[in-house]
Design goal:
By secondary structure, the protein is mainly alpha-helical. The protein is built from 5 helices and no strands. It folds into 2 domains: about 1-30; about 35-100.
Length: about 100
C-alpha cells in the first residue's frame, strides 16, 4: 500500500493530466454530431496502430520467463490489429455510400 501511495505522490501531475484529458475527451465527443461520429471513430481506430507498435516493443523487451508481459503483449497485438482492420473496413463502407450506383 505504501508503494501505491508513493507512486501517486510522485506522479500527481501525470494523474491530473489524465483526469483532465478524460473530461476534455468526453466533452469533445459529446458535441460531435451523430452524422460525423462513425467516420471519425473509424479513422481513430485506424490510428490505433500505435498500440500494435507498443505491444511489439513490450513483447520484444520482455524476459522469456515473464509470461504475463508476453500474454498481454500478444493480446494487445491481436486486439490492436482487429481495431485497425475494423477502422479501415468501416471507412471503406462509409466511402462506398458516396459512390454513384451503376
Amino acid at each position: 500500500m505504501e508503494q501505491v501511495l508513493s507512486f501517486i505522490g510522485e506522479n500527481m501531475g501525470m494523474i491530473y493530466i489524465v483526469i483532465l484529458s478524460i473530461f476534455l475527451g468526453v466533452e469533445v465527443i459529446s458535441h460531435v454530431p451523430s452524422v460525423l461520429h462513425t467516420p471519425l471513430m473509424s479513422g481513430a481506430n485506424a490510428i490505433h496502430g500505435v498500440v500494435i507498435i507498443g505491444a511489439i516493443i513490450v513483447m520484444g523487451r520482455a524476459e522469456s520467463s515473464n509470461y504475463v508481459a508476453l500474454i498481454l503483449g500478444f493480446l494487445a497485438v491481436i486486439l490492436g490489429t482487429l481495431n485497425v482492420v475494423g477502422g479501415f473496413v468501416v471507412t471503406d463502407r462509409m466511402l462506398e455510400m458516396f459512390k454513384k450506383k451503376k
